[in-house]
């Protein structure tokens, strides 16, 4: 039975785990081990999302650090990491076809403006000026000119590459069985194969599995799973660089640098999917629903061929925003889970703040509203 030690162990090799590893190493903490259960880095949601880097439409509790990432990190991230992460900051239209849609969008916009975000609702004429390829059925949209998108796989692997160069150790196919306290403090990470890792600080950023692991030291976070699906089209002539979404959330996506369109979509049946977490089969129901929604907003894509569909499990949090927090009952433990399908765009800020928390520094923005103990019984 082998035994390994580090200053910090990160459980989860997704974009948040890789980013935290990089920022720790950048701050001089190179004795870091990242344990990834799959055989490849970024195999989960980090490589299976639509790449949105948005501030608009977010819960007010997460908007400050989403804005921090966009204002201070994303514009120079490719240069910093030495990899082109294909970041575009050309804006985000969230489209509406009914007055009910516009009322919902105005509510999102007004709340965001109160926190300083440049976001407004625009009419059909302005929508067409921004993106002339949209259906005439669109009567308005919310518009955030500082939103954008990036390549999620390239971003995750760029953080991995730089962290590795700075001395971080990544171990794949490393399945964690449980956590264990020693003298009142989280110290041990017990692997399914019997190996034991030890560290002063353990960051749990393992998606839905974070719930299982935190339970082993007496902490339960109300998470549940949701199977999100996406598709990519064949290459198309260049149309636009903005990010698109809808008021009802039936699809979102963008055109990639290559020319293909990448869309995430929703059939309304995802909550009823019953598969084990290691199963990634996609459903013809969702793909067809997504295609109908996309064509309804972008008619020119009606004949575009779908090259590939894929899916992945999302760790949904009970109240729709993540848990990013130290755990007072378990000193040495930091949680980063429950990102509810919108954790990619905030990953630079989250990774930085996880590094700051591990080093007992003040976080770049106040995230006290995301504490692990904010959940209260309703009866």
TrEMBL record:
InterPro entries from the entry?
Answer: FAD-dep_OxRdtase, FAD/NAD-bd_sf
Q: Residues in domain FAD dependent oxidoreductase?
A: 7-357
**A GO cellular component entry from the record:** cytoplasm
What Pfam families has UniProt attached to this entry? DAO (PF01266)
Q: What's in the keyword line of the UniProt record?
A: Oxidoreductase
- List the molecular function annotations (GO) for this entry: oxidoreductase activity
Keyword Oxidoreductase part of the UniProt annotation? yes
Q: What is this protein called?
A: Sarcosine oxidase subunit beta
Organism in which the protein naturally occurs: Lactonifactor longoviformis DSM 17459
